[in-house]
């Protein structure tokens, strides 16, 4: 049939689910229960949407690497087992951490692919007998994943999108960094660029600037070897290095000025400065 007997239109629509052919203009049904001569089953529908009822198992999925033993039961009575009780305590912790990390990642606008890395690292930590609070651990692992991928997300951004305080975050991060042997997740380019940004804002001659950069570069290498940057924002540590270098070359400047250039508080500069003297075995005599 080439034309609709009701309106004469030649445009027809075939509903592949019901096998019905009807007129596109007036809706007149021309035939029903048509046999689909196409393949028996397809992976996608006409709109390109997947019809698959299964998907690859993600490493972050609950129960990953678990197995179930099927045994015969002679008793005729059965009982319903809550789904959560099918997992041991470790897997329940993974489920909780996964949920928290997923929320933090979504709130911070980060790619979802980070979630797999976070959960895999947490499973690795559990094998090392790691014990820490779930919320703080989740945020710390998300932060580590961001720094490894050079994603533009700071520690303050993550803390702002969670109910974790800075003290709890630092404690969890330091513990994780020691177990996973993370010597420093900041690359040299980031540290040098921050150093140049602060040094170029100081009114000194180019000769002193060159000497400052050489000295600070040496401090950075020693700081990375002693885990100086672990658990802290590198901005405050670099600012303290700049301040210490200026004192060594007898350039008079206030801590408050350096703090303003770096965007941190003078109290933070003072704390990082004292830590530098202890970690790097410096002794400044003024």
UniProtKB/TrEMBL annotation:
The lineage of its organism: Archaea, Thermoproteota, Thermoprotei, Thermoproteales, Thermoproteaceae. InterPro entries: Cyclin-like_sf, TFIIB, TFIIB_cyclin, Znf_TFIIB. GO terms for biological process: transcription preinitiation complex assembly. Pfam families: TFIIB (PF00382), Zn_Ribbon_TF (PF08271). The chain crosses the membrane at residues 234-251. Keywords: Membrane, Metal-binding, Repeat, Transcription, Transcription regulation, Transmembrane, Transmembrane helix, Zinc, Zinc-finger. This is Zinc finger TFIIB-type domain protein. The keyword Zinc applies. Residues 1-31 form the TFIIB-type domain. GO terms for molecular function: TBP-class protein binding; zinc ion binding. SUPFAM superfamilies: Cyclin-like, Zinc beta-ribbon. GO terms for cellular component: transcription preinitiation complex.
